[in-house]
Amino acid sequence: GAVVSQHPSWVICKSGTSVKIECRSLDFQATTMFWYRQFPKQSLMLMATSNEGSKATYEQGVEKDKFLINHASLTLSTLTVTSAHPEDSSFYICSATRRGGTDTQYFGPGTRLTVL
Amino acid sequence: QKEVEQDPGPLSVPEGAIVSLNCTYSNSAFQYFMWYRQYSRKGPELLMYTYSSGNKEDGRFTAQVDKSSKYISLFIRDSQPSDSATYLCAMRAGNQFYFGTGTSLTVIP
């Protein structure tokens, strides 16, 4: 159990367009979902934490208006990169913690975004 | 000082070797300790999850936690080329998670 999916797994878009990435917990209800960004050969960088039904909490330096997070249900969170630019190209990974659990984060497979 | 310190490596070992990966931490409030494995261009995969001090074994993997020294380890026995990946330690205090920077491991056939 504790499977997290992401869609799409990769996306290429033109500069100036917006891209939406979905994160779903497939077999559990997620109290909290996290969004990370990862550059090649670097560690995870937490962008924001979201709880179902409430506004996301963004880490310092992460633009709220650029990276829109919507945690619509206990199994779905979306990250929208608005007006994407080449510097937004990165590997975006979501994770989730189980509702009622005191355990760990379960990660999705990641989405590779390339902005041309 | 970072909450969690992890040697980034890279670490290169011959197949069959015993691998030791380590993290140190400063926050005594950490209660849960995790090890993740991340292959290139993939999301991290949970390997081990421990709560208390001591050892936890799962196949070729052993996680060790020493709360008194604020030190955790992951041992990989009989390492295989398929173990080549980046290994991340993680710790939790309440709802806050802290990750190490990851250690890159290559197991040479």
Structure characterization notes:
The complex is a heterodimer of chains A (116) and B (109). With 116 residues, chain A is mainly β. Chain A contains no helices and eleven strands. In chain B, strands 2, 4, 5, 9, 10 and 11 form a six-stranded mixed sheet that branches. In chain B, strand 7 (61-66) and strand 8 form a beta hairpin. The mean pLDDT of chain B is 92. The A-B interface holds A 2, 4, 6, 32, 34, 41-44, 91, 93, 95, 102-110, 112 and B 32, 34, 36, 41-46, 49, 88, 90, 92, 95, 97, 99-102, 104.
Number of helices of chain B: 0
User: Whole-number average pLDDT of chain B?
Assistant: 92
Q: From the structure provided, what is the oligomeric state, counting identical versus distinct chains? A: heterodimer
Please identify the structural class of chain B as seen in this structure.
mainly beta
Structural class of chain A: mainly beta
Taking the alpha carbons of the first and last residues of chain B, their distance comes to: 37 Å
Series of H and E elements of chain A? EEEEEEEEEEE
| Largest sheet features of chain A | 7 strands, mixed
Unreliable segments of 5+ consecutive residues of chain B: none
| Number of E strands of chain B | 11
- Proportion of beta-strand residues of chain B: over 45%
Q: Report the end-to-end length of chain A measured between terminal Cα atoms.
A: 37 Å
Report Rg of chain A: 13 Å
User: What proportion of the residues of chain A form beta strands (DSSP E)?
Assistant: over 45%
Largest sheet of chain B: 6 strands, mixed
Q: Which keywords apply here?
A:
heterodimer, A: mainly beta, four-stranded antiparallel beta sheet, 11 strands, globular, B: 109 residues, mainly beta
